[in-house]
Specification:
Layout (H helix, E strand, L loop, with lengths): L1 H30 L11 E7 L3 E8 L9 E3 L2 E6 L3 E6 L5 E6 L4 E4 L3 E6 L6 E8 L2
Antiparallel strand pairs: 1-2, 2-9, 3-8, 4-7, 4-9, 5-6, 5-8
Length: 133
C-alpha cells in the first residue's frame, strides 16, 4: 500500500511539472498575440484542469488596482512571469504592495480572500496553480 501512495505522489508531481511546462509555453505564445487583456480587468485563462489541479494564466493590466474581491477556494502557488509589482487588498482594507522579479514563486493557503491590482505601467503575468487535493 505504501509504495502505491509513493508512486501516485510521483505521478502527480510529474503531471504537475508537465502541466506547468506546457502552460508556460502556451502562455508565452498567447502573450505574443497581444495577451488578450481587456482594459480594466484581469484576464484569467484556464490552461489545465483535472481532479487535482487547476492552472491559470493570469494577466493583470497596468494601472488597474481593483480586480474585485475574491476568495481562493484552494491553496495555490503563483509563478511570476513578468517583473513588476502587485497590490493585494484584504477585506478589511489593509493593502500590501509587493515587488516581484520574473521567476518569483509564492504560496497562499486555501480560503485566502483579497483583491489584486497592478499599480505599474506594464502588464503583470502570473501562472496560478491551484491545488485541489
Amino acid at each position: 500500500m505504501r509504495s502505491g501512495l509513493k508512486n501516485g505522489r510521483h505521478g502527480f508531481l510529474a503531471g504537475l511539472a508537465v502541466g506547468i511546462a506546457v502552460s508556460i509555453g502556451g502562455a508565452v505564445a498567447w502573450s505574443q498575440t497581444g495577451g488578450g487583456a481587456a482594459q480594466g480587468k484581469a484576464v484569467y485563462t484556464t490552461v489545465l484542469e483535472n481532479e487535482r489541479v487547476r492552472v491559470r494564466d493570469v494577466t493583470f493590466p497596468p494601472g488597474v488596482l481593483d480586480t474585485g474581491m475574491h476568495t481562493h477556494t484552494y491553496a495555490h502557488v503563483g509563478v511570476i512571469l513578468s517583473e513588476g509589482a502587485l497590490q493585494f487588498t484584504e477585506p478589511g482594507g489593509k493593502t500590501d504592495r509587493v515587488q516581484f522579479k520574473a521567476g518569483s514563486v509564492g504560496f497562499r493557503e486555501a480560503n485566502a480572500t483579497h483583491q489584486v491590482g497592478n499599480p505599474g505601467t506594464a502588464p503583470m503575468r502570473v501562472i496560478e496553480v491551484e491545488l485541489k487535493g
